[in-house]
Give the backbone structure.
Amino acid sequence: MTASPPADAEGALIEASRSGDPGAQEALVRRYQDRVYGFAMRMCRNVEDAKDILQETFLGMIRALPDFRGESRFTTWLYRIASNACLKKHRRGVFDPEPERVISLDALMPRPDAEGRKPEIPDWSADAERALLRGELAQQLEAAIDTLPRDYRIVLLLRDVEGFSAEETAEMLKLSVPAVKSRLHRARVAVRQQLSRYLTGEAGRPGGAPASGGPAEPFSRGGDQTR
Amino acid sequence: MTCRELFERLSEYLDGELSPELCAEIRRHMDGCDPCINFAKTLKATADLCRRLPAHRVPPEVAADLRAFLTARQPRSFTKSP
């Protein structure tokens, strides 16, 4: 995640921008254009749409700056504009090749095998770290995020990629905090499954678990391990 | 606490959003439940990896187009010098 600029320097820039200082407004755009572009690219997945979102976001920012009173962080305020632009762009499309689907937590939960044995969940966290450092994992992770339905993708991007809190994300998207938490969890579990398949080479098995032939009981047959 | 209950609350646990009592219950469950421990580790790794995704850079031509766009629409607000 791109680091945020120091708060006091940003405050001065915002104040100058609000007063109509053209140089300050331009500096503010330059300061955040990379981050907003990255967010837009991950939401829309093509340069032309990301360009439109970038332009709409910063035009909106400049026009609405007189109304920014500092009740939220500037980045929260800016990303609310960017998020709205992303979500509006998606709705405007006449043909949406990706019908919105719901991520089912049930479907992603590892299952016991046919004999009722606990699923084997490999711990690939250290492998992932090494793969990331070798430059092998970023593309897989981006591809996994790409597969998320839009309403889950935007929450994962705002929370885990951009680093906003659950409360800020809820404010930006006009959702409840519990809704943000629920979507984030489902998005993470879905992305985790994709990464697991890549890192363990076990395609088609949720979380790398053995294939289940039994009833849909999480982790163990005949009721969960209650501890 | 069951595996299912833990599974449903895992993100909240990893994000420090649960009460100390619930966290203690989760830790008690994980103590000895390898599937849950490993699922938690890999879910945490997933979130951590997202935080470390490389930043995008605006391509120069997109940045130039953005500047031209804003200059055209907010002529008093944007400098016209290249």
